[in-house]
Design brief:
Elements: H1 2-48, H2 54-57, E1 81-83, E2 109-110, E3 132-140, E4 152-162, E5 169-176
Parallel strand pairs: 1-3
Antiparallel strand pairs: 2-3, 3-4, 4-5
Length: about 180
């Protein structure tokens, strides 16, 4: 009888530990998801232009590809600005190393770099590091129109958020079009 009670107690303890691991994993995923959403919003503010970086605003004119480079820019105002890959190649966002935050080698933008936004990170229940994003330039054509009749550009924003532990990452994408009058659509 004592052995049966001991086995029941051990299995109950194991179930409790597994439930705690699942809850911790869910919390980390939620934290990473929220950080990635914040990075998407930071990128939208970057596209719309901010007083913190007035020179970068010119790169997001609705009919301009200024500053966007193949493989993503890694210096100055071109950081994180990517031209669309050639037909048949993998999308640019799949080839960018979002974990690279080296000053000379990074191709993605850390949260707040061009908007001045801040996000605490690195301790407790905070993301272990700031989220990052890239902005890809894509041609915009009206539905039903000739694909050669380009009306300007829109942007594919890819963001990665990190959880409290290094293994927790969430990648989100959004598409953003800056209307000619300045308002987003």
């Amino acid at each position: 009888m004592l052995i049966a009670i001991l086995l029941l107690g051990a299995s109950a303890a194991q179930l409790a530990l597994q439930a705690e691991k699942v809850a911790r994993g869910e919390r980390d995923w939620q934290l990473a998801f929220q950080a990635a959403e914040e990075a998407l919003m930071d990128a939208e503010k970057d596209i719309e232009g901010t007083p913190a970086e007035p020179g970068r605003s010119a790169m997001f004119a609705p009919d301009s590809a200024l500053g966007f480079v193949a493989g993503c820019g890694g210096d100055g105002a071109s950081l994180g600005l990517c031209l669309r890959g050639a037909a048949g190649q993998a999308p640019v966002w799949q080839s960018v190393d979002f974990d690279d935050d080296g000053a000379a080698t990074a191709r993605s933008v850390p949260y707040g770099k061009f908007t001045g936004a801040t996000m605490p990170s690195g301790e407790g229940l905070l993301p272990f590091k700031r989220p990052r994003y890239i902005i890809e330039l894509l041609p915009f054509t009206q539905e039903g129109e000739d694909a050669g009749q380009q009306l300007g550009y829109f942007y594919r924003v890819t963001a990665i958020g990190f959880g409290a532990r290094p293994g927790s990452e969430v990648v989100l994408q959004s598409f953003y079009r800056k209307a000619p009058g300045g308002a987003a659509r």
